[in-house]
Amino acid sequence: MRHLAFPVQTERLLLRPFADADLEALFAMQSREDVTRYLYWGPRTLDEVRHQLERLKRMNSLDGENDALRLAAVVRGSGAMIGDVSLHSVNREHLQAELGFIVHPDYHGQGYATEATAEMLRIGFEDLGLHRIYGSCDARNTASAGVMERLGMRREAHFREKEFVKGEWCDELVYAILATEWAAAR
């Protein structure tokens, strides 16, 4: 596994570990109902976000000590922290990880989620040597499903009423891509 050098640059974004200076932008996202609608947790208070930020700052590699790579997505030029992307180690033996992403609603519809997550797939397959990366979302979250489809991830499952979240049974969609599929598409 190759050591990652930060920030990672895409055409319009910098992906980098979280820092103390991200508190305000992170709170601006995580305190919103429309951001947390399809997540396991609801809008967070400033203290909850501060605690979460301390955890996020340590999620900067997938190695023997860390099981998550979670990076702030920052617009190049303006420096605005607009979201986060992640790879969570699911199975080290089988080289699998879960992809995650959140983008502030003010930046929806501009391709930032697709750009950031495409780079995370590249990191996962090229730098970390993963075999399979999957992502899941609430079936009602058509925007997230669309991002995964644009990445070339194939829909593997539609689980009916899989989880009871925030007082209701929710369907879940699962998408995945193999290293060989990703390489062939490039």
Structural class comes to alpha+beta
Radius of gyration: 16 Å
Strand proportion, as a percent range, falls in 35-45%
Span between termini:
21 Å
Overall, the morphology is globular
What is the CATH homologous superfamily assignment? Gcn5-related N-acetyltransferase (GNAT)
Spell the H/E element sequence. EEHHHEEEEHEHEEH
Provide mean pLDDT, rounded.
Answer: 94
- Helix count, DSSP H or I runs of 4 or more residues: 6
- CATH C-level name: Alpha Beta
Main sheet specs: 9 strands, mixed
Task: Give the second-level CATH assignment, the architecture.
Answer: 3-Layer(aba) Sandwich
Topology, number of strands: 9
CATH topology: Aminopeptidase
Can you describe this structure?
This protein is an alpha+beta fold. It is globular, with a radius of gyration of 16 Å. It has a single domain (about 10-185), classed as Gcn5-related N-acetyltransferase (GNAT) (Aminopeptidase), CATH 3.40.630.30. Strands 1, 2, 3, 4, 5, 6, 7, 8 and 9 form a 9-stranded mixed β-sheet that branches. The chain starts with 7 loop residues before the first strand and ends with a helix. The longest helix is centred in the middle third of the chain and has 16 residues, at about 110-125. The protein contains 6 helices and 9 strands; from the N terminus they run ββαααββββαβαββα.
Give descriptors for this structure:
186 residues, alpha+beta, Aminopeptidase, nine-stranded mixed beta sheet, 6 helices, 30% helix, globular
Describe, in short, the structure shown.
The protein is 30% helix and 37% strand.
